Amino acid sequence: MPEEKPKKASYTAKDIQVLEGLDPVRKRPGMYIGSTGVDGLHHLVWEVMNNSIDEAMAGYAKNVVIELLPDNMVSVIDDGRGIPVETHAQTGVSALETVMTKLHAGGKFGGDSYKVSGGLHGVGVSVVNALSTKCIVHVSRDGSLYTQEFAKGVPQGKIRKVGSSAKEPFFGKNGTRVMFQADPSIFPVVEYDLHRIISRLRQQAYLTKGIRISVTDLRNPEEAPSGYAFYFDGGLKSFIRNLSDEEHPLQEEHFYVDKNAGPIHVEVAFTYANELDARELSFANNINTPEGGTHVTGFRSALTRVINDYARAKNVVKSADENLTGDDVREGLISIISVKLPEPQFEGQTKAKLGTTEARAAVETVVAEALKDFLEQHDGDAKKIVMKCLLMAKARKAAKAAKETVLRKGAFEGLTLPGKLADCSSRRADESELFIVEGDSAGGSAKMGRDRRTQAILPLKGKILNVEKARMEKILLFEGIKFLVIALGTAIAESFDIAKLRYHKIIIMTDADVDGAHIRTLLLTLFYRHFAPLIEGGYIYIAQPPLYKINKGKDVRYAYSDDEKEKILKIIPEGNVQRYKGLGEMNPEQLWETTMNPENRILLQVRIEDAQEADKLFDILMGSEVEPRKHFIQTHALSVKNLDI
């Protein structure tokens, strides 16, 4: 938020408004936290942490501490105002108990307690309480310490005053500590990922200037605790510097603006790199909006308009027909857009897209004014940006011509499918599978061993193009990629249409050696950069062929890992062990039984847990810069298992 000191607003029991009860949460937890898998488990941490971040955005909290404790307990502490503890007039119990046990109860539905907030729905901490076997809350208000305990959302007694908060030095005069233990009957696996939590905390510290956020792992009493702390006084200026550290920068100075437009606070940073892909992060009240929204639309509109205005003023673009498009000005752009606003409207329950119309005008106005000044004051950077955009415009026109040749009308009809594709007879995408197989030899075995009704085989000859380093016109001229695009049926780039996907399982099946791993990585790069909705929709899989065949007489077994091999050898200690180097070594029956038969096979579903980290990793491993890749390999070499050189 802006620099001025916040006005002291009321935050008492009368500010807590109740909309409905808590009963449905344990019956349908997925409705409130998305899932009961690993994402939902970590969502509990985010919900409690969001309350602390809201206190920081309101100007009250300066510190947030997360502790991972033994017995799967998590503690979240802040030095904000502390949850009110007096009796709530509407519910007849304490405001603390009301917040912890009632859905849509909180200080974010009315009054002046919070001008902006990430937890607008008010379901966060009460849902965490409902889905925890144990939840203990400590509150410091005006130097007095209070506590209350809950089990599966049910109070285990009234709120108690337990003395002075002097024994809680972190709190100071005011603060809140929420400790919870996720219910294993709701969550099949209760195991918190420290790396995931660190990434989230770092991001939140960037988005909230001047707040110190730390995490300490105390889960194993026999090991020394590990801790991490984040504090960024530069806000998004620090964030953009971090994002662009391992890129090849184009600009000398990063663009940055931090300004209010009425009640909406706009903070934007961007820089250009000598890369092909754009990286765009957006947030509304510190909530990540991966699908963008009105704030992103405002940013893009301002960027395109101002760069075109500058290019015309410099006589580089001479007519409307030569205008740079939005795609032209976003190639190689690394941008972060953050808005903080009262009562944001999100599209969908997951808050993935901002819908507040006023945000577009606010961002467009702030960015346009600041960017015009930036280009005038940084003439060298301005010329580099315009020249890069003009190069992209030229490439766009070349790509359009290539697409018109490759992706002509009717290219996806059955008669024009590539000759190497052995298609399945089913025309139902939901039961059809496409195996992308390395080489003609393995392709031949797969074609002979498959279920012809539901399984299609597309052999690839050699390694496909590394799309991380290539423009679209070059990608579309590469034969292997062209065959794959036609087989999928979705088209590519702006013509992409997931509704036309011909297979709902796309399975990468390569050899278990270095070359196979490289081909798999090239294919994953293609899917991540140009078919991301297929990964997001859960359509991409990696086959797991066996590493070993172990047999003694007629007793034949397959091992998919070294550990499994050792277990089998204990059962048949005199077995002969064959190490499979390639799929072509298997006959059709073996390939079907071990790798393609839905009854026996092992498939790994490809997922994007952290888009920002994935983007950075693909750029390091597959990009044009050698030094970051060399550093990555040196750093992680000792942790590689089953290294095949």
Radius of gyration: 28 Å
Low-confidence stretches: 407-415
Question: DSSP helix count?
Answer: 20
CATH superfamily of the largest domain: Histidine kinase-like ATPase, C-terminal domain
Indicate how many domains the architecture comprises. 4
- According to DSSP, the number of beta strands is 24
Helical amount: 25-40%
Q: Enter the CATH topology name of the largest domain.
A: Heat Shock Protein 90
Label the overall shape.
Answer: globular
So, CATH architecture of the largest domain? Answer: 2-Layer Sandwich
CATH class of the largest domain: Alpha Beta
Mean pLDDT over the residues = 85
N-to-C CA distance: 53 Å
SS content category: alpha+beta
The largest β sheet comes out as: 9 strands, mixed
Beta-strand fraction estimate: 15-25%
Structure at a glance:
With 645 residues, the protein is of the alpha+beta class. 35% of the residues lie in helices and 20% in strands.
